[in-house]
Amino acid sequence: MSETFHGWAATKPGQALTELAFDPGEMRPDQVQVKIESCGICHSDLSMLNNDWGNSVYPLVPGHEVIGIIEKTGGQVKGLAVGDRVGLGWFSGSCLSCQPCLSGRHQLCSSAEQIIVGRHGGFADRVRAAWEWAIKLPAALDPASAGPLFCGGITVFAPILDCGVKPTDRVGVIGIGGLGHLALQFLSKWGCEVTAFTSSESKADEARKLGAHHVVATRDKAALAKLAGTFDFILVTANVALDWDFYIAALAPDGRLHFVGAVLNPVPVAAFSLIGGRKSVSGSPLGSPATVAKMLDFCARHQIAPVTETFAMKDVNAALDHLRAGNARHRIVLKN
């Protein structure tokens, strides 16, 4: 039996979103149907709306930081039931049979379904996803603000585990926005000595409140030069081109410069800047469902939460303009 979902969609790049009624098609037996309570707005939503990555399909309903209540389950769904409050992020399905899936790295599945790529996402009243990506929200976390954890949060939490960051490490976070403000909280609670790199001096006090022990201006080359050989791990959450030589030089032996921000420009790296100190440059997408669950438990244990602003779902265009203007502090959540 067909159903009708209602969302907010763009019909071409750069266009304002308008209301869209759509048939989601037949529900798969491995899917859950979620009645959406709220959905965060990520910069990736803007990239998809603008077709910056060349994979947008219109009409496009963005939104991939969903919190909602399961209202229907397929016959193959495991571990979830109608009435469960869950969160959804960038991924909405994986094959469960490839080597990455079978080894618990579902986010690396080459055929993984992405919730707003070729299908409609969370700026809507309902959404569907495969059960393995619908993660129960711990009761200790506020559902009104938890949505951004399922993209911004896991994007910066997963590398802490995957890259073996230790509590004794000295770490840096470049960019104190939707991703970076969560990275500061995670890394400080992890036990690290944390330095925030920001282009906005107005964010210095807030960065310290979020867990940074030190704050350095990204435009202060003299200050950056003094940090040579300091950091075990530097996490890049910004999506702009910087003078990467400074940050590679700031790495200690065996240090790692790790990208989670979608920097569109090539990152030039001289081999000799890595070889002598056995340094590395790497990047990652989000995390596996198991890592998402670990992150949520860590947040509940340490009272970590996104800093959010709330708009009504019907005011989505005003919310997007607020983000485009650089005024979001630090994540916008749309509420149904």
Describe this structure in words.
By secondary structure, the protein is α/β, with parallel strands linked by helices. The protein has two domains: 196 residues, Quinone Oxidoreductase, Chain A, domain 1 (Alpha-Beta Complex); 131 residues, 3-Layer(aba) Sandwich (Rossmann fold). 24% of the residues lie in helices and 26% in strands. The protein is built from ten helices and 17 strands. The strands form four sheets. Strands 3, 4, 5, 8, 9, 16 and 17 form a seven-stranded mixed beta sheet that branches. Strands 12-11-10-13-14-15 form a six-stranded parallel beta sheet. α3 runs parallel beside α4. It is globular and about 65 Å long. The chain starts with a strand and ends with a strand.
Write a concise keyword list for the protein shown above.
Quinone Oxidoreductase, Chain A, domain 1; alpha/beta; 6-stranded parallel beta sheet; 336 residues; Rossmann fold; 2 domains; globular; 7-stranded mixed beta sheet; single chain
